[in-house]
Amino acid sequence: MIHYILVQNRQGKTRLSKWYDPYDDIEKRKLQTEVHRLINSRESKFTNFVEFRNHKVVYRRYAGLFFMMVVDHKDNELSCLEAIHLFVEVLDAYFGNVCELDLVFNFFKVFSILDEVFVAGEIMETSKPVILNRIDQMDNLP
Question: Percent of the chain, pLDDT > 90?
Fold first, then answer.
């Protein structure tokens, strides 16, 4: 199960966060800071997953952004990396070479794309054309 998803830049500024477990605002801010410190201090030659508290952080860096998923210990790391990559591919296909500013200025659309891929802490859809078709249908609603 996915506990939360974070997208942060290299400076630690959170550009997207989706929480599937209940945390108060102070705890959320603390978790974001701790996860960023943990991920940002790792060298690129290390694996893209690391243990954090009672969970596992699976992350991938695209340009200046870290896409992170905090999951259960028993979850498969490679499937989480694939899910992150799918999400980035869908963003890239929708926005056309997605960048950090797309996430900042179109956050409602990014959240709707995120909700098409992940629902209640689980991967809902794995087909990129299906997700893009649904997003296109939502865009065409009156």
Answer: 92
